[in-house]
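Follow-up to my earlier ticket, as requested here are the two runs.
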Amino acid sequence: MPQPDSRALNPTSTVSPLVNGIEVQAGDLRERIVALRDDVLRVTYARGTSFPEDASWAVLATARHSAVPVTMETNADHFGFRTRALAVEIDRSTLQLVVRDLSDAVLQQDARPVRFDGDAFRVYKSMPRDEHYFGLGDKTGPLDRRNEAFTLWNTDAYRFQESTDPLYKSIPYFMTFRAGTALGVLLDDTWRTSFDFGKESSDIYSFGASAGPLDYYLFYGPAPRQVIETYAWLTGTPPLPPLWAFGFQQSRYSYMSQSRVLQVANRLRADSIPADAIYLDIDFQDRNRPFTVNRVAFPDIAGMVVQLKAINFHVVAITDLHIANVPAHNYFPYDSGIAGDHFVKNPDGSVFTGRVWPGPSVFPDFTRQQTRAWWGTLYRDLHRDGIDGFWNDMNEPSVFDTPNLTMPENAVHRIDEPGFAARTATHAEIHDVYGMENSRATFDGLLKLDPNSRPFVLTRATYAGGQRYAATWTGDNSSSWNHLRLATPMLENLGLSGFAFSGADVGGYAGTPSPELLTKWFEVAAFQPIDRDHTEKGTGDQEPWVGGSDQEAIRRRFIDTRYQLMPYLYTLAEEASRTGLPMLRPLFLEFPDAFADRHPIDIDNNASGEFLLGADLLIAPPPYLDERDGYSIEFPSRDWYDFWTGAKIPAPAPPSPDTSSPSVPTGPSVPLSARVTPDPAQLPVYVRAGSILPIAPVTQSTNEIPRGALTLRVYAGDNCTGEVYQDDGKTYAFQHGAYLRMKFNCQRDAEGMHLKIGSHEGSYPAWWKEIQVEIYGLSRDQDEIFVNSRRVSERIEVKSHSLSFFITDGGTGANIDVLAGK
């Protein structure tokens, strides 16, 4: 067992102030802490005479090179500095770090000196009893990482279960949350890393790596939303995908023939089930060789795509990264890759070969910019055939016949990348970024083939910052009620970790779901960012009609609802592309102060299955979805409406005092709760009071222009706002002003409600000419409607929970007053 390096315990010998921070030297150990912004710190250690190369696959150069001036602060015990948001202290004798806010509250502090064991290191932080931890991507288990430990090493984890670790992705970032205050932590290390949140020691959390530079970032909220936006500032925002990516997607491993693909697509249209994409898994290829087509099963793939486009389907094709090692077989990806020296090597300089789906295969060296550019050219034929999206699977990378089921750690990559020094690196260093660089090569290659069309790339393996190139999903889940339950915290933590556009295979990949499980999965997935039905070879059919007409009708209704919500979904997607805020959110992200003690509401048992879609919709399936017993829903604030009926959720009656028994202490009171009974055909969904939701008529695909009015559902309440964003859903014309944005707000007073519909921003035309306004939560006597001071007297409909009317939308906005009748 290697002995701990004690250099971190040496007395400080040198302190050097920097314009934006401080550098400390203790023996041959050096520590540098700098402020990139007033709320962002970078902490770097060096052993020896120089700091590691300032290069990163994850953190953008613009962020790494940012700086703000600081004010130095030292005394007999510590030295440090202060920004306009944070105070930094370093203990003179141990180099232990404490970070406080300007009210002197401790945000993070070292529990022990940093420990070095040869090339490995570990950082130890104090863990307050009321602190919670979120992030690390789609690790399984509860949303809160507290009392858990994890390894980050991208792994093909077929049939993963609740205790499986590691999984497909390595996102070495998490958020601490304590009493409503959030702090982000990003360890930028591509080697095998690990995180322990109190598993080893109940009052310490720690993180470290087997090798690589000790380089991490701390970024202060205090609100969790601010932490998310700062993480996006550091690692990048996801590009806005094409609109069709948010429609329903149908897939399986595999649709074995061209005729079967067309049959499934035509059945979706015949049954009036909205859908936008159908997937081709590896069997569309010739002998599982990427970038080929099985011409027996798919004799005219270009013609098939034409037929699918005629009924508004987009095709997504898989392109695994393993290239069949078949010299002298006229296989262009192999021949051109060998000619260009594009494959990963063995230590002796020969090309590494491992067995995957095509048999013996070679692997592109994606750390070379030349290789990524070559990879992009391989999409030319499939792109010319009209395929619109591409799916990078097996890119951990998965290798079948090696002891560790991936490349040997001594395989050799060549780094030739702007911002990096040219050098070789072992696979042990590159493994966790390999899948991300694969998706980067795909995304950039598609852009080069068609610079004005937005690519859609779906990746299984990735690293921090991978959201810049691809959407993702949670991998090979199982067809079980437990896996449906697991999907929610996995997607929430992916969203908190930068991946706003993610999903879980609807119905489960491994196994055949019962009709009831498949239906409930369709219901829940209708409110998730990516809605893809997918299953493996050898399982039963899993399309929406499987299980009979009654089940199909329920599933269709929820897919219809998704398409009605498409203006809201797309508006959230555009927000994510600017800010990094996820579409699917834990409740504490929007309501960090739900309770008086400011603990995250999501850790409560009653709220553990709930999630938000944006800030306005709360989806509340049962905590255990196969149970039929009634359950309580916890709301994070006091005023909510039922999405399906428009009824306002009543506040529960206060408990009757019982003076006959002694007082029993209770926990923090819930702002609002409701008791519901599970229904196989229903899913509890609620709308925040103060929301204004844009709703569209149902279409069969996002390529169809909706017929009718845009509906604005206005839910009376405080801070009443809403927005809708539209563009062509395909190109980058929105970056040059060809978009449509409208903002809405409303206020209530003694006279009634005052609704302002903003004017059209941008040059993109609206598909609607009229707006139907539906207002919920008004008193029964408020039925006098004035638009720009002119009374509306026609097409007014009064229902039990709503008042609706139509107005013409000429693009200049409108002021609407809904007043009590005389």
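Run two:
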Amino acid sequence: MENFKLNKVVVALLGANACLFPALALSQTNESETQLDNVEKIAVVGARGAPRSVGTSPVPVDVLSVEDIEGVAFSDLNDVLKTLVPSYDLSRQPISDGATFIRPATLRGMPTDKTLVLVNGKRRHRSALVQIGGSGTQGPDLATIPAVSLGAVEVLRDGAAAQYGSDAIAGVINFQLKENTEGGTFSAEYGEHFEGDGESITFGANKGFALGDDGFVSVSLEINDTQSTSRGEQYCESWFCVDPSLADFNPDASYAQYVTPEFFAAAQEMGRSVHSADVVQPWGQPNAEAFRLFVNAGYDISNDLSWYAFSNYTSSEGDGSFFYRYPFNSVMQNIRLEDGSIWNPLEIYPGGFTPRFTGEIEDYSFTTGIKGNTSSALSYDLSARYGYNEIAYTLANTINPSLGDASGTEFNPGTLSNEEFQVQGDFIYDLDDMTLAFGVSYLDETYDIAEGQLESYIDGPYAKADPWGFCSQDAPTSAGLTVIANGSTLNCADSDDPVYQVMAVGSNGFPGYSPEFSESYSRDSYAIYGDVSGDITDDLFAQAAIRFEDYSDFGSEVVYKLAGFYQASEEIGLRGSIGTGFRAPTPGQQGTTNVSTRLPNGTPVAVGLFPASGAVAQALGANALKPETSTNYTFGVTADFGQLNITLDYYLIELEDRVNAVSTRDVSSDASSGDAYDNFLALQAAGVVGAESIGGVNYFQNAFDTSTEGVDFVATYSLKGELGDTMLTGSINYNKTEFASDPSEFLNAENQFDFENGTPTMRGVFSAKHAYESFQGLVRLSYYGEYDNIDGDDVQTFGSEVFVDLEGTYFITETLSLAFGVRNLFDNYPDPSDLPGDSCCGRIYRSDSVVDWQGGFYYTKLVAKF
């Protein structure tokens, strides 16, 4: 135990796991949170036995304190982690269906679903959203956890599937909830972007209560309202330009003749009334509002037995835009109504329309358990948890084109939900110098796609040519003669007559889930693990873990891990690990289906995503998904030179059978279009309604193997002087992912290039925090290295960027403080995109870039502690 510099406030870091370790489960404290800065940070994750200091952990772990979290001006935990952990990256995707509201993130270059998320050491349930591109990520929604509820956050940057189970290929993030028995915190924050938009208001509160003489209840609440931003320009493309006064206006474009002063006025009015912007298709963050509640409780029943429970409820809503439908595009075509007259959706939307997409998210969970000791050597933790996440969609400002003039303008396309129930037993047996940890778990999970509103998916009469039977062999039928007699301009001999027009099926932008694609996907699994760790000598700590998991849909797998730490000298330590991983595709990845508008070739087109094991994807050559497997290697050096602490870690993650969406396969009903026509016939044969309106298809596959290599460097240095105390921190991550097998069967050349080059390989965060009397100042620099993107034969290199954050805090009293700050002080933006696929449709910046493109943001924050 000589490596552990213990203090009674360590309990605040151990959270729900503290009672597993009787030697460390000391009495609780109400000491100020700032005193944690004087205690060596302890890592609970990384070893299933006794926790270790970060400097002596056999694997790299970041421990973020309350003060670290409060020092970041974001309400979304995704943004907090991105700001503080360089190897954690996050992008904003404003026109990407559900990803607009639940954003995909990566740790060490691996998607979110390869990072296990824990709360108080217990697995957090997944969100209902399956990302429709890339790896089809379905991970927990970190935005459902209020920052004010946290006592600490641990980020394990190493594969840990043998210790914690499937999903822990890239690492583990453990959120430790507060355990205060009294006192609390209230904060109010207001801010907006330099552009004058994106106004954000956040209220957060935490209050601790004593539960009898030996327990606590800590209640945390957060309310946030964030307005949208717009960082685009007016829609002006070669095929259609809204504003003829723009420099790029092409008078010879196909639809230029429709841009009249009347149209321009209508389009501008539509833009203002729907988007609060002067552009018909805004690019930026969506409107969002959220209510987040977390309750954490515990009670010591006796010296050897404790009860704990924690629960959450979150309700949030966001809305964003889809692609602008310009007049007379494939959606807005003339059709002949039942009376023989001509009708066009322009009669509803004279300036074209931009669908508005809303997601309402409901998330709740409950975990409870008991833990204690059966003897001086054996400790146990028996727990059960339930988690549920649901996202209900609404689509407005659109139509179901196949319904013609009978179409509504607002639809409910359906609801997605993910439900999990788990029971688990964890045990620790103390063998003097060694610790044996072992346990079992059972997990049942269900992913459900609920049918949408009938009008959102129905194929109306105009889904086929001549729905009213006006023509036969280029000549009018009796019905056709009747409407002609009543004044119709019907001309059956003209193949371009509106009577032959076929319209798209379903609510345009996001067709609803039909009964054929509304289904529940369930599975269960169980696991058994063992972990032994301890000091081999005074200077050598070693750990070995093994885990057996069995899935009802994928069979069984055994994974292992070996790790060690060697104290080479008083200042220098060496550490390393090797381990294997196993990740079973989620029920959501196996069952999700989606039709949405994307830009596979630089222009908007309806693309259908279908389950790999379903009839549609199988008809296109797909194979059922199988598990991903991995091998992780790490080697690192730690150094402790008094006030200077340094860690340097190299890692290599070899991932086999990686799940990824295949490049979009073109679809066309034109018999001369080759493979695209074959794909159309396959969709028809599989019974896909409205196949004529789908321009592309894709599906998830175990597409290729990858090798991810990188280095993490972290250094901290503290200075104390007459003019105050200063803490300097520097973190750098280098990360590069390359293909380890030939992906050409699944990805086209552009997708292959972007996969390996589309994100910065270098990322750094550097900060200086200085405190003097009643003042505290913080300066933070975030660095993003260069990265490339390709379109056809054109490659664009995006330059490196540095963002500077500045915050000053004045402590009015010991319990009341006022802060003023600026994110991105110099209002930096990434390079504008020059490539057609990334600059289409009013977009200026690459919208899925991990480099923020919202510009500067200023804020003020009032914090009261009591």
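The only thing I checked on run two: The radius of gyration is 29 Å. Let me know what else you need.
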